[in-house]
């Protein structure tokens, strides 16, 4: 267990001459705040802030950041306010503590919204002071180290959140040391059997690997010295997570992963890096296409190194990374290695270039009102760009892999994106959905007055492009909804022979407040999309003249339809879904994603067809929910009677006899009824098995998929829409109901 004296010693060693009074004061304050509190492990709660503070001290951060590590949970878990912290430690530390404090007291019901708002607050706080995320990463790292004391459902939730948000954040900031440990810990809890298998595989290979490492290191060291290059050479296994990721990407088993050993060569200068690369290639032949120069073209997170993969004398491939000592420090510590605490968290121009994506987030987040939508886009933007393209004037633009000319256009300027009508790549006209490659020279053709297309959302990759397109389409849809709402309201008023002059300003404002509309345009837009009816407004604005919808009960409670009340579904899945905030309406489960109980779901208010229920990761939802106002909260209702739902599975296997029978046997042993099954052969001679089955809920599907993945000869198992399977054999015009 870390002692407070360990923290003091670490800070003294890296920041000689620094006063330690602030840390002593913070330690006493934290000890008093957490007095009597314990963790799930039974240890005193104070052990957690001590561990967090030591992680920060080990990253050579300043005493204000280390003090924040000691105090980071004081407001969240103790009876202490931010004003108390500011009074004791000043505004700088109070702002840091506030940046890492969860929004536990936020008045929003769903846990997903609370998490999204917390992440949004943290990301935006990073722009003002990067130390916020450094403290949060240290906090998450220690929580992951002690995750074994949490219930299984919490382990999965925290590990998934870590892998989706905190690992890419650490990567974006270049803190390889923290990122690597978070990856390993996440994999350990998300895929415990895979993690154990990989660990055993590396243990079995240790003796052979040690011999190879020793042989390569000695040979390379001798050759470098002969050429006058002094270098430090280390060899190691690649991380379990990187091996796992390769298995997933290439759909191979652990026995088919060969390049699991990597060497690091640390030189004194950039010139020696390139000299060492030439010597490595002179000794061992390089693997074509595996040489990467991140010194000449650094990664967005400031990472610099030369990478090459070569073949040993015995036919074993291995990777060599070559960089200077300073580059190695940046690779391990990232933005923390550039730290300048004398200016309270502000970064130099070079350092800001490494976190330029934060500025981009600040730009596009203004166009995103919904916190969960913001979180979704942040997850996309956190993965660093891997494609470097050029403007005609030679400016380098970094984009994510798979980006197209429209992403490039919005990276230049919003209006360039909005008015884009074509593109030239390397002086040739190309379709707008063309995937860009590193080195491409891109020129955008614009036309004044042109507007973005909804179809663009299907292939753009950057969050900036998505949010700007959606913001424009949302504005257009709102204008259309307002026009339609005005037309419907005027028609209803004519039918009831009500003159606009009969509705006073006070009556109108009272009705708007009751219906939770800030402006009259908001009311018209809500009527236009079907969230409200003209009768609901008129019953409140002129109640003596308008019969309330729904009879006497509705007259007594005219606004009940727009309050947070729950209605039952009236579709092919009766009483299975609850919808919050609408009156009786038709509800249907979307066929494109086929949600089943247990899936995270969201409702979409259609025009004239009620509410359509989709899974949160449905690929069509992106295009549909341009206007957040048409999103509505839905949830699965508790079902006392057993019922089944249809689900589709795609199973990729080795192409050999008996695989379809094996899949059918697994389904039978898991009490899953198969309605349809077929087998095919895909690319690379891979077996493809499609199954349409009846299940009760998501947990049953996940258990089935887990067993299938463990079956010999199975490469990959995933869910797809049953319609995609059954549609393979439908004749044109055949009924799909």
Task: Tag the structure with descriptive keywords.
46% helix, globular, 4-stranded mixed beta sheet, single chain, Hypothetical protein af1432, Beta Polymerase, domain 2, alpha+beta, 737 residues
Summarize this entry quickly:
The protein is of the alpha+beta class.
Overview of the structural elements:
The structure is a single chain. It is globular, with a radius of gyration of 30 Å. The N and C termini lie far apart (63 Å). By secondary structure, it is of the alpha+beta class. The strands form six sheets. The chain has a five-stranded mixed β-sheet. A four-stranded mixed β-sheet has the order 13-15-14-16, with no helix packed on it. Helices cover 46% and strands 15% of the residues. Helix 10 packs antiparallel against helix 11 (176-190). The model is unreliable at 103-109, 340-345, 548-575 and 730-737 (pLDDT under 50). The longest helix is centred in the first third of the chain and has 35 residues, at 192-226. It has five domains: 4-192, Hypothetical protein af1432; 198-335, Beta Polymerase, domain 2; 470-562, no CATH class; 566-636, no CATH class; 645-729, ACT domain (Alpha-Beta Plaits, 2-Layer Sandwich), CATH 3.30.70.260. It is built from 29 helices and 21 strands. A hairpin with a 4-residue loop joins strand 19 and strand 20.
């Amino acid at each position: 267990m870390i002692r407070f004296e360990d923290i003091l010693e670490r800070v003294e060693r890296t920041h000689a001459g620094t006063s330690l009074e602030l840390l002593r004061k913070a330690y006493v304050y934290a000890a008093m705040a957490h007095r009597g509190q314990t963790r799930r492990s039974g240890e005193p709660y104070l052990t957690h802030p001590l561990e967090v503070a030591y992680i920060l001290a080990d990253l050579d951060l300043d005493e204000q950041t280390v003090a924040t590590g000691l105090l980071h949970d004081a407001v969240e878990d103790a009876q202490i306010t931010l004003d108390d912290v500011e009074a004791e430690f000043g505004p700088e530390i109070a702002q840091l503590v506030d940046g890492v404090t969860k929004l536990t007291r936020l008045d929003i019901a769903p846990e997903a919204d609370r998490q999204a708002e917390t992440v949004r607050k943290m990301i935006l706080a990073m722009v003002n002071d990067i130390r916020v995320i450094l403290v949060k990463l240290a906090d998450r790292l220690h929580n992951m180290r002690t995750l074994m004391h949490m219930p299984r459902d919490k382990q999965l939730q925290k590990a998934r959140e870590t892998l989706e948000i905190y690992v890419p954040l650490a990567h974006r900031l270049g803190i390889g040391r923290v990122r690597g440990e978070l990856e390993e810990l996440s994999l350990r809890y998300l895929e415990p059997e895979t993690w154990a298998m990989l660990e055993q595989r590396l243990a079995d290979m240790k003796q052979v690997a040690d011999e190879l490492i020793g042989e390569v290191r000695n040979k390379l060291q001798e050759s470098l010295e002969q050429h006058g290059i002094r270098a430090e050479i280390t060899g190691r296994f690649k991380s379990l997570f990187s091996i796992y990721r390769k298995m997933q990407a290439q759909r191979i088993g652990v026995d088919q992963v060969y390049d699991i050993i990597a060497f690091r060569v640390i030189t004194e200068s950039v010139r020696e890096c390139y000299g060492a690369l030439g010597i490595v290639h002179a000794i061992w032949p390089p693997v074509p296409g595996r040489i990467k120069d991140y010194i000449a073209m650094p990664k967005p997170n400031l990472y610099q190194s030369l990478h090459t993969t070569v073949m040993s004398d015995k036919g074993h491939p291995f990777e060599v990374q070559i960089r200077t000592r300073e580059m190695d420090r940046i690779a391990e510590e990232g933005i923390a290695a550039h730290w300048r605490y004398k200016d309270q968290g502000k970064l130099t121009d070079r350092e800001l270039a490494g976190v330029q994506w934060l500025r981009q987030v600040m730009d596009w987040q203004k166009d995103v009102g919904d916190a969960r939508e913001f979180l979704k886009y942040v997850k996309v933007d956190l993965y660093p760009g891997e494609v470097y393209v050029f403007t005609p004037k030679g400016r380098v633009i970094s984009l994510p892999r798979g980006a197209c000319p429209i992403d490039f256009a919005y990276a230049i300027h919003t209006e360039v994106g909005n008015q884009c009508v074509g593109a030239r790549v390397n002086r040739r006209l190309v379709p707008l959905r063309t995937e860009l490659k590193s080195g491409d020279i891109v020129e955008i053709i614009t036309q004044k007055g042109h507007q973005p297309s909804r179809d663009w959302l299907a292939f753009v990759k950057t969050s900036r492009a998505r949010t700007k397109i959606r913001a424009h389409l949302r504005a257009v849809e709102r204008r259309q909804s307002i026009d339609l709402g005005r037309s419907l309201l005027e028609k209803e008023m004519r039918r009831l022979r009500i003159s606009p002059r009969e509705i006073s300003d006070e009556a109108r404002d009272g009705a708007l407040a009751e219906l939770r509309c800030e402006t009259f345009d908001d009311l018209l837009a809500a009527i236009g999309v079907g969230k409200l009816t003209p009768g609901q407004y008129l019953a409140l604005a002129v109640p003596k003249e308008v019969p309330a919808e729904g009879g006497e009960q509705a007259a007594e409670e005219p606004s009940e339809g727009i309050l947070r009340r729950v209605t039952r579904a009236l579709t092919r899945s009766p009483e299975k879904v609850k919808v919050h905030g609408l009156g009786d309406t038709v509800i249907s489960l979307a066929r494109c994603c086929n949600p089943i109980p247990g899936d995270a779901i969201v409702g979409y208010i259609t025009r004239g067809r009620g509410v359509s229920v989709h899974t949160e990761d449905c690929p069509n939802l992106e295009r549909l929910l341009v206007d957040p106002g048409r999103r509505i909260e839905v949830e699965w209702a508790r079902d006392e009677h057993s019922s089944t739902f249809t689900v589709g599975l795609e199973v990729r296997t080795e192409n050999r006899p008996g695989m379809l029978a094996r899949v059918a046997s697994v389904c039978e042993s898991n009490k899953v009824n198969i309605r349809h099954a077929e087998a095919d052969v895909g690319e690379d001679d891979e077996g493809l098995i499609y199954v349409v089955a009846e299940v009760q809920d998501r947990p049953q599907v996940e258990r089935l998929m887990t067993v299938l993945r463990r079956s010999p000869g199975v490469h990959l198992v995933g869910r797809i829409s049953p319609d995609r399977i059954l549609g393979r054999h439908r004749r044109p015009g055949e009924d799909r109901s």
